[in-house]
Structures are given as C-alpha cells and as structure tokens.
Amino acid sequence: LHLSSAAGTGYKGVTKLPSGRFLAHRSVGRWRDRKPTIGIFDTALEAAVAYARTVGEYQPPATPTVATEAEGLRLHLSSSSSTGYKGVRADRSRYQAACSVGGRVVYLGSFGTAIEAAVAYARAVGEAPEAGSAVAAAAGQASAAPLGEAAEGAAAAEPSVEEAVTAAAAGTEQPAPLEEGAAAAAAAAAAPVAVAEGLRLHLSSSSSTGYKGVYKGDSRNGRFEAKHRVAGRQVTVGRFDTAVEAAVAFARAVGEYQPPAQPAQPPPTGATEVDGLRLHLSSISSTGYLGVHEHFGRFQ
Fold first, then answer.
1. How high is the mean pLDDT of the chain?
2. How crowded is residue 110: how many other Cβ atoms within 10 Å of its Cβ?
3. CA 298 to chain centre
4. 291: which residues sit within 8 A by CB, 6+ positions away?
5. What 3 state SS string does 263-282 have?
6. pLDDT classification of 47: cutoffs 50, 70, 90
7. What is the DSSP pairing of strand 214-216 with strand 233-240?
8. Which of 115, 198, 218, 235 is the most interior residue, by most CB within 10 Å?
9. Full-model pTM
10. What are the φ and ψ backbone dihedral angles of 200, each rounded to 5 degrees?
C-alpha cells in the first residue's frame, strides 16, 4: 500500500469523509483538483487497497549504492542520510559538508558531487575505520556499499549539516561527537589563530569568523572576504579560501594588531591606617584613597 505521513488517514489517495466513510481517489494530469473517484469504502484500509489496485502497488525506491573509498580515503557511509554519506546533505544541485567540533557545527564547504563532500568530511574528521575492525564494529559502520533500506513511510533522518550550511533551515539534531583525536585536529584547524605569516592578526569575539574585518561570503562557495574602512567607505581587500588568509590580508592592509599599552598605575602612597581605622587605598585615584579627590588645593 501507499503510505503517507502527510495524509490524515495514513494512506496516499485516501480521504475521510464527513460521514465517517473513506474516499479513494487519484490525481490525473497536472492539476491537483482533477481527482477522479475510485470508490467510497467503510475503512481506510479498504480504500487504500482499491487505490493500490488502480494505480499499482507501492514500489520502494531502489537502494542507492555509494563509493566506500575516494582519493585514498575510506569514506563515512550512513544508511540514515539521503546522500549515503555521514555529514553530507544535498542542497539543490550541490552538496554541503559539515562536522561537529566541541558541540558546534563546523561548515566544511559546498561541492559539486556527494563524493567530493564526503572526501572533505573524511579529511576533517579522519577516514572511516576499516571494515571489520573493532572501531568499525563499535561505531556501527557499514562494510558494504549498498545502504540499508529505510522503513516505509518514515522520513530518513538527515545529519545536522543543515545547521551550518543553510541559514534558513535549522537542524534539529546534533551530529554524533567526533573521535577524540579527530575532534581536536578539526578544532585546531577551525579555531582563530593570533599570528600568521609573521603578522599579529586582529581577533574579534563579536565576529562569526573570529577575525575583525573578515566576513563569510556566499554559503555556496564557502569563501571569506576581507574588508576595511578608508575615509568612511568600506573597501574590499579580497576574497580568500580560508578565514586566516583573509585575516592576514586585513592585517597587511591596516597594519598588524597592536595590543593596547597598559598604563602604569602609581602605587598608593598614603597612610594605611589613621586613628585606629584601616583606610581604603586606591591605585586609580590621584589622591591614593578611594572616594577622595583634590579640589583647588583641598580634598573632598
């Protein structure tokens, strides 16, 4: 039978009537309103059977096959992903790859094929364990190319690549934590660096890239733009493949980061006790005491 999670009856082509009976109908042509009636039945099951006899029984989609290795790397297969690869999702005509580092989703890029995206994922987190190994058995890795068939009528759970690759579509699940070594390597690659190519970079906690003057460009190409202001106008320095490269270009354009000089604070010189009382000293007050300031030769 043709199951449907979107239909109130649970069956495609079956609608419950106000009388409590069930109408079986099918669409004809391009217009949705052209739905010739197949019949009216006492139960939804009877209507679903009539629908299947009219249009043909449900044919499950062919099980996709995917490559297990590419560019010398064992890829991470996934029976719950529509692309066949863990950390890879289809986005229109392209494929987006992302991984999880320290509970955060890190975007890896946009690619023309699912295999290219799967290779990028394997490079970021480490290649998949060899089939038959103890690690593979523990992780539940598939050892063959064909993917497992999803249950009928249930949507396959997509990895939370959506959280990083599309601003509009938010993922609802966090991806599985990476192996400890791979997570550390990916975190080190993603974390902003303070110095590169002999220049102190301008770090920024308020920028999503981690660098001042560096912005993430179009999500489809995954590149980064470096910009700075000249005479009140924003000038583009260039577009780069990584945030670090863009941050280096920004530092070359405006000068490397100079940490602010720490003003020397004079030590308090006043007495610490008077009349049996411990006084409140202050290193930032010109008088040396908290709550006391000089006013025309007198003290308030």
1. 76
2. 20
3. 63
4. 280, 282
5. CCCCCCCCCCEECCEECCEC
6. very high
7. unpaired
8. 115
9. 0.32
10. -80, 120
